[in-house]
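Could you help me review a protein record that somebody else here produced? Do not assume that whoever made the record got everything right. The record follows directly below this note.
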Amino acid sequence: MDQHFIIDFDSTFTQVEALDELARISLKNHPDREEIYKQIEALTNASMEGRLSFTESLQARVRLLCANRDHLKQLITHLKKKVSTSFSRNTIFFKNHQDQVLIVSGGFKEFIIPVVTEYYIKKENIYANTFEFDEEGNIIGYDRSNPLSQEGGKVKLLRELDLKGEIFGIGDGYSDFQLKESGLIEKFFAFTENIERKSVAEKADHITPSFDEFLYINKLPRAISYPKNRIKCLVVGNVNEEALAAMRKEGYNIRHRECIEEKYLDEAGVLFCDDANQPTPEQLEHAGKLKVIGCFGKINNRKIAETACSNGIIIFDDPKNNPRNVDFIPRRVIAFMNEGKTHMSCNFPDLQPPRSNNSHRLIHIHKNVPGILAKINDLFARNNMNIVGEFLVTNAQIGYVITDVNTGYDAEVLNKLKAIEHTIKFRLLY
């Protein structure tokens, strides 16, 4: 069955509302700019939450802009830097689905086209409003015959397009939900990476905190194998808020607890702790999902480090009062989770592989016994998998292998890699 992906622009493809940003550019020197900014933002939110018709909101916002073509040039430069993180890392999806992706927005083509076409989205698949200008290049209005300038415009447009097949809608606003309400799309995904509008999210078929999550649940190719919003980061003890902000920015699901309880540790992929709150070796033996520990302080028991290592759990620690650990710990944890880097770990062998583009990265952690690498490579050879790069480091307990392979392989190979004798942990990184 054919599939189509209807994607919103403002606060979805980009992190911001473009008209709000245009106002901040065009009204920069206006004496009443702060008051006008608030009016425009209020009009935007009222429309997105379904409290004001889109037509009324758009008319009022454009009147307040006082913008021209030069302001639009500045806006485009700004928006290119504000593409939502999870969209920007999945460029390959857009490249491979050029005929299926449609940008449908109540925004304006003048600033949308220059941004999204850099992501292989076809110009003819971009549906949005258009400004009207006077002879001096000032914005004086917009084409009111365009259905997207009207209330229920996205519904009107999709009826005209008459797309066949399975249609998914992704957006943050009420106008996006209306597509589901009209029966024109299969599922509506409320996109909450940038903003969560509760009145919209509660009506969605699925809440997707990132584009990775959307691709994951629909079994579509993606840049990372497992969405970070599904990975719980357990926080116990005195952990600086700046460090947690870095993890939130990456998309991790932060969970605070007073002490380390097994039922919460068993669910966690990441643990942040301090000197006074560290897991016991026994707890680590049963923490099947745990991949990495960031300790804001030094690990106070060598048995903890050894047990973690033998169970495939890497640890990064730093002296308690070292001012660098606010940045050092989350940076090292993120580098391991994103690229498999183990540099500066206190219990894993050191490896800093370069990132490989246009390939998949596989991580295999196993007991340090002879012959494992040969078994891994034999499996690749028998399944015609081309190795782009391979790295092996060991310590007394484990062997740590990172293999970058080309994009074509049978998913069953991953299960065979997990089943190799003496395997401790295996994961597809990206």
Summary: Residues 316 and 344 are 7 Å apart (CA to CA). The chain has three domains: 3-217, 228-339, 360-428. The chain has a mean pLDDT of 94.
